[in-house]
Amino acid sequence: MLKYAFRRILGMIPMLFLISIVVFTLAKLMPGDSFSGEIDPTKTNPQYIAEMREKLGYNDPLPQQYFRWIGKFVEGDFGKSTRYKIKVSEVISEKLPNTLLLGFSSIIITYILAFFMGLYSGRKPYTVADNLIGGLNYLGLSIPSFIAGVFAIFLFSFTLGWFPSNGSIDIGMTEGTFEYWLSRLHHVFLPAVVLGLLSTASYTQFLRNDIIENSRKDFVRTARAKGTTEKKIYNVHILRNSIIPLITFLGFDLVAIISGAIITETIFTYPGLGQLFLQSVGTRDYPVLMTLTMLFSFLTLIGNLLADILYGVVDPRIRLD
Amino acid sequence: MSTKKMLRNEAPLLEVKNLETAFDIEGTDYNAVDNVSFKVKPRQIVGIVGESGCGKSVMSLSIMKLLPKGIGKVKSGEIIFDGINLEKMSESQINKIRGKDVSMIFQEPMTSLNPVFTIGYQLQEVLFNHMKISKQEARQKAIALLKSVGISRPEKLVDEYPHQLSGGMRQRVMIAIAIACQPKLLIADEPTTALDVTVQAQILELLKEIQAVNDMSVILITHDLGVVAEMCDEVIVMYAGKIVERADVDTLFHNPKHPYTTLLLGAIPKMDEQEERLSSIKGIVPSLTNMPKVGCRFAHRCPKAMPECFTVTPVLGDVEQDHEVACLLYETSKPREGVK
Fold it and tell me: Is this model's pTM higher than 0.90 or not?
């Protein structure tokens, strides 16, 4: 398995190289550059602009610009944020903890809800409760997150006042105290639920359908013929089989945790990577934008690799070598 | 033979009385097994034969209460096993009998084992279900069981997964699971249909051996009359959900009474005759939804059909001692006046 993982990681290098070309080209194709994002073009001396562009290397041939960027990137120098005037790595690592907290909370909520609802619906399909769960899920799937987010803020923040509507922490908290963490959890809960709504719905329906399908398999009949209880048949024999296809989602989840949620974070003004990404587009902060895009691409590849390795762990029929 | 005489006098181990199993097709019940009664005595091997779609498998699933939920159900009748009516039992009560006193092996060894658990786990599960036994003991017992079904390297095989085994090996594992608790009755639903011919012979040999060693009764469901001749003491011929003939194996093969039985026997390919074509029975078994309401269900395929075959439903009657037939060619099959 180690050998397999190593080979896969080696295979990622050309892939990342290609991605970097695409990312660089896209950034170049976008109108304007980071310099014009920093100044007000209408009030600046055109000669100064031309000088600066020459100085920043914007007039060099594209391949030269690309290799200058990628060379530094590989060394770990992601450049300086044109907006924050500090290193890109510092900007990202400042926002990363918030995003991780949001991502993990959302996924834990999703997994717990989907597991219990899916298991119940799969075991008792076509009952009132199953239809109710199914109805809720389709509602969750069909409401876009910006509507669900606004509605959640209106109901739970303004009307009921249960949860804060924005930010990631109350003002004046001392870092590391119990209240500090409590406040962070309090802030993250609402965006986490809204973020998890969609994936909860798809996870639940997927698990339900897979359980129903597996419950008709021959090995279930064999288990019954052995005198195995219905509870054990569902919780052991069927569930163990139904978890396998869900592993595919797990790979995507890893990316979702880090990339945050651009829309949800913006609605809740939650300072995470998603919000940073959107702001970087607005201010043409290309060093941040390109670094984030590369980071998300890299994580997608890692997520897929992790899913493939997990397949080998949970499914004895798959051998990795 | 002395054993056969002994069999005749013993109380039956399993008695099926007027069993009716129905399938719900678009809101209407259709009987897949229609008013079937028979007995299985201790240590007896009973063969049930018939074409596909005759209700053989459905009947065996009815006995084990393994019918697909919500679709198939036993409508009426009794299944008395060892003095207890299985039909009246709850799910948890029947779970104490399934795998312990009555067990079953299925047609498809390729899909009958759970792909994500080891052979050892699946074999030990039946032991844990019915015995108070430690993990260590269960493992030892599993290895011994695998050995007893003719698996050559049982110590390794317990830790392997089903996909690492061939069809024949998997069926041996299924047999090991079925006999783990030394059941009184084993139901084998076409155990060799999915296997190739050389393996078939080995599996049947194994079943016969195990039956003799464990003193159990076997219901062998098959459409292979050659298998029946080799294995069984008694034969039940089913057609379209009903029993059409029942006799001991010698009588049935040498003196078949029902035209359907005769045709089935005629369809066995003979090695010593130079015939270009295999003889077959024309037509197919009527589907559940267009089963004839009155008359003999075989009438439209029967070469000896008479006009009354389409209007009078034959009943199962003793044409001679211990030889039941349901065919209007025989006086004993004509329904008595006033009885439907």
Answer: no
